[in-house]
Amino acid sequence: MNNSIKLICALMAVISSIFVLTSCSNCFKSYIFEDVTFAESFNSYGAILLSDEKAISDMISEYNFAALSSNAYDRLALFERDFFENNSIIIIFHREITGSSKLTVEKVEYFNNTVNVVLKRSVPSVANDQLKDYIIIVEIPQKHQYSFASYEVY
């Protein structure tokens, strides 16, 4: 009986390690740009994972980043081939319903082939009713091969 319990515990440990959700609050760099104005259609793009210099170049020209945000454009232009040997970036297009809110990147979570960025929202007690658009760039290490990126705000 004792060996059966040990075997079950070992099996449970292996299974749980396969489905572990890991997160870290210091394994990334983030840049939040509020000087942004984009069309409603951009908000549906959510989080986009980019793993090479060509993907950034394509995105800059396709979405006309220079017009969206000169600061975000300048930051994206700095990423070169050497950076992508060990890193990836996630670009998040997000729209807030109040211009008074502030967003910060709280943590980055890794689960199987998905990386999730958790944003924290702070809103003052008195808020305005203007929309506020954000472009958020998050640098992450390539510990694994990720296929998808997502984000959530709380």
Structure overview:
The protein is of the alpha+beta class. The protein has one domain. It is 28% helix and 39% strand. It has five helices and eight strands; from the N terminus they run H-E-E-H-E-H-H-H-E-E-E-E-E. The strands form two sheets. It has a four-stranded mixed beta sheet, with no helix packed on it. It has a four-stranded antiparallel beta sheet with strand order 2-7-4-3. It is flat and about 65 Å long. The model is unreliable at 13-21 (pLDDT under 50).
Radius of gyration: 19 Å
**Beta-strand proportion:** 35-45%
What number is the mean pLDDT?
Answer: 78
Quaternary state of this entry equals: single chain
Largest sheet: 4 strands, mixed
Query: In order across it, which strands form the biggest sheet?
Result: 1-5-6-8
Tally the helices: what do you get? Answer: 5
Which shape, going by the Cα principal axes? flat
User: Can you give the helix content as a percent range?
Assistant: 25-40%
- Which series of helices and strands comes N to C? HEEHEHHHEEEEE
**What number of domains?**
1
Quick overview of this protein structure:
The protein is 28% helix and 39% strand. The protein is of the alpha+beta class and 154 residues long. β5 and β6 form a beta hairpin.
Q: How would you describe this structure in keywords?
A:
154 residues; alpha+beta; four-stranded mixed β-sheet; four-stranded antiparallel β-sheet; 5 helices; 28% helix
Please give the structural blueprint.
Elements: H1 2-18, E1 22-24, E2 29-36, H2 40-43, E3 47-50, H3 53-62, H4 65-68, H5 70-77, E4 87-96, E5 102-111, E6 114-122, E7 132-141, E8 148-153
